[in-house]
Design brief:
The protein is built from twelve helices and six strands. It is α/β, with parallel strands linked by helices. The longest helix is centred in the C-terminal third of the chain and has 15 residues.
Length: about 220
């Protein structure tokens, strides 16, 4: 009898990262790769074919028809509730992790941690468990010390702030999230009020300081050790 093998879909906009994830998963021997995607358009096409047990997906994955981040994960959970999700991210931010946990995504891996955490996370996700890599655990443990403000933002407000500080305009965010310009402006304003910020430049600085957006031009490469 052929041994059971989990069927995994990989989604990340960087080819080198997809290759590293592929290697980390297939080398474990308990899973096979059902498909890969570079953006949300390709990802939804792959998932529509069925058969996926666990999705390993980057949090920030621009360029697709369905956006990225919380909005994309909410859509996936609505359309494919049986698919388990492992989020792989470079955004080391307590607000984002908190929003993922609230959404029911309980396996989150930081790209700054070893990819040896990936296969255990896939297995735990399939079993409806919780797996946070060491850096993610440190982030959550530090919330009381330096990041309580983000906890006060709703998931929608946090997503609007993340997209805004990443360079999108209010109109572009409205189009990506399928909301009105007025709604996006209201959510951005509400977030700034909660954070005690008055100027857009302060919001951008806040995004850099809290890890919502990278300060440099290139993302930190993941570790494949």
């Amino acid at each position: 009898m052929k041994p059971f093998s989990l069927r995994v879909v990989i989604a990340d906009d960087h080819a080198a990262v997809r290759a590293g994830i592929h290697h980390a998963i297939v080398s474990g021997g308990a899973a096979s790769i059902l498909g890969t995607a570079r953006n949300s358009t390709e990802l939804l096409d792959v998932l529509a074919k069925g058969g996926c047990d666990v999705l390993v997906c980057d949090y920030s994955m621009p360029g697709g028809r369905y956006g990225d981040g919380i909005g994309l994960f909410r859509l996936i959970k609505q359309r494919y509730p049986a698919v388990k999700v492992v989020v792989l991210t470079m955004l080391e931010n307590p607000g984002i992790v908190h929003s993922l946990l609230q959404l029911g995504i309980t396996c989150v891996i930081s790209k700054s941690d070893s990819m040896s955490h990936l296969m255990p996370a896939v297995l735990v996700a399939f079993a409806d468990g919780r797996y946070l890599s060491p850096t993610i655990i440190e982030i959550m443990d530090s919330v009381g010390a330096n990041g309580p403000e983000l906890q006060s933002l709703t998931a929608r407000e946090l997503e609007v702030v993340r997209l805004y500080v990443s360079g999108l305009t209010v109109n572009e965010i409205a189009e990506r999230l399928n909301r009105s310009k007025k709604t996006i402006s209201t959510q951005k304003g509400a977030a700034m009020l909660k954070l005690g910020l008055r100027r857009d430049v302060d919001l951008l600085r806040y995004g850099i300081e809290t890890g919502l957006v990278a300060a440099g031009p290139s993302p930190r490469p993941p570790r494949f050790d």
